[in-house]
UniProtKB/TrEMBL annotation, chain A:
Keyword Cytoplasm appears in the UniProt entry: no
Any coiled-coil regions, as ranges: none
Domain of life from the UniProt record: Eukaryota
Protein name: SKP1-like protein
Keywords annotated in UniProt: Ubl conjugation pathway
Function of the molecule: Involved in ubiquitination and subsequent proteasomal degradation of target proteins. Together with CUL1, RBX1 and a F-box protein, it forms a SCF E3 ubiquitin ligase complex. The functional specificity of this complex depends on the type of F-box protein. In the SCF complex, it serves as an adapter that links the F-box protein to CUL1.
Pathway: Protein modification; protein ubiquitination
Source organism of this protein record: Rhynchospora breviuscula
SMART domains linked to this entry: Skp1
Description of how the protein assembles with itself and partners: Part of a SCF (SKP1-cullin-F-box) protein ligase complex.
TrEMBL record, chain B:
SMART domains: FBOX
Protein name: F-box domain-containing protein
Cross-referenced InterPro entries: F-box-like_dom_sf, F-box_dom, PP2-like
Family matches, as Pfam families: F-box-like, PP2
Residue span, F-box domain: 13-59
Length: 164, 169
């Protein structure tokens, strides 16, 4: 059993086989193998307690079928079910998604990182220039004339919106 | 463990800039080249993530380096974004395989486009001057074959085309 401690000092007990889905944790466990029990406690300092809960839920769902995922031999029905589950899992507020991305990045959980990034990318898809400016929450610093200069002519197709 | 369902959708009050640049690049790589260009052009804070090699690497076909190694003239590029636009230029398709094929990308989707020279096709009796004549057209970089017979079958090489792309346009 591995114990994860979040930044707000909450403890999470997880099976080693389950926590191994984090490549960072797997490496730490590997380094400390054969040592005292106290060394099986891992501090996850940059993550608040809400996120380990989500991450562990994600791990448990994926733990049941790691071999099948690795060999892409999952049945169509199972794959559809997992896809539906993931859609529900990632249907959450943006702060949680941001935290999940940071957690997946620091704990090195590639599939969680991809899933959360893909969900966040939806907010940038098929937007107008004004909307992207709004989303990135920064006043459009470019003046109109600068804008003309800034955008190379090769990118004119984006502005003509010919693929909308 | 049952998951709590939420009705939250991601609109409105979003601050993407809380994410470090490498994460932001990964987020943008799930959009399209058009979206990435817009992010880069509109928002200074998003610019370097949207222009990064990590983002544009994913818009390029996965086997792009092996295709580049088949180029007649070596391709020089400053960044992956630069390379993407080099390969999208319809006026300068990349000649590969000793000039028997040209390669390019469809700009909005990054789908692979190949143009095959008649020299790369197996055409029945193509060596027979009675039926065929090899001609060079000044506006074409690839070799052309003129046909004296309309009912002709030919076979082309197998191409590693992109998945899930509609080529029938």
């Amino acid at each position: 059993m591995i114990t994860l401690i979040s930044s707000d000092k909450r403890k999470f007990h997880v099976l080693e086989e389950v926590a191994n889905q984090s490549l960072t944790i797997r490496d730490v466990i590997e380094d400390r193998r054969g040592r005292r029990r106290a060394d099986r406690i891992i501090l996850v300092t940059n993550i608040n307690s809400k996120i380990p809960e989500k991450v562990i839920v994600y791990w448990l769902r994926h733990f049941l079928m790691p071999e099948e995922i690795a060999h892409a031999s999952m049945s169509h029905k199972k794959a559809e079910k997992l896809k539906k589950w993931e859609a529900k899992f990632f249907d959450t507020d943006i702060d949680t998604l941001n935290d999940l991305i940071l957690a997946a990045d620091s704990l090195d959980i590639p599939s969680l990182f991809d899933g959360a990034c893909e969900k966040v990318s939806d907010i940038l898809k098929n937007r107008s220039a004004e909307e992207v400016g709004e989303i990135s929450k920064i006043e459009n610093e470019f003046t109109h004339e600068e804008e003309e200069e800034e955008i190379p002519s090769e990118n004119a197709w984006v502005w003509r919106n010919e693929f909308a | 463990m049952e998951m709590e369902s939420t009705d939250a959708t991601i609109v409105g009050d979003i601050n993407l800039l809380l994410l470090p640049e490498e994460c932001l690049s990964h987020v943008i790589s799930f959009t399209t080249p058009r979206d990435a260009i817009l992010c880069s052009a509109v928002s200074r804070p998003l610019q370097s993530a949207a222009d990064s090699d990590a983002t544009w690497e994913r818009f390029l076909p996965s086997d792009y380096s092996s295709i580049l190694s088949r180029a007649v003239d070596p391709v020089h590029y400053a960044s992956k974004k630069d390379l993407y636009f080099r390969l999208c230029d319809p006026d300068h398709p990349l000649l590969i395989d000793g000039g028997t094929m040209s390669f390019g990308l469809e700009k909005s989707s990054g789908a692979k486009c190949f143009m095959i020279s008649a020299r790369a096709l197996s055409i029945i009796w193509s060596g027979e001057a009675r039926y065929w004549k090899w001609i060079a057209l000044p506006e074409s970089r690839l070799c052309c074959l003129s046909c004296f017979q309309t009912d002709t079958r030919c076979e082309g090489p197998r191409l590693p085309i992109s998945n899930n792309q509609n080529y029938s346009r």
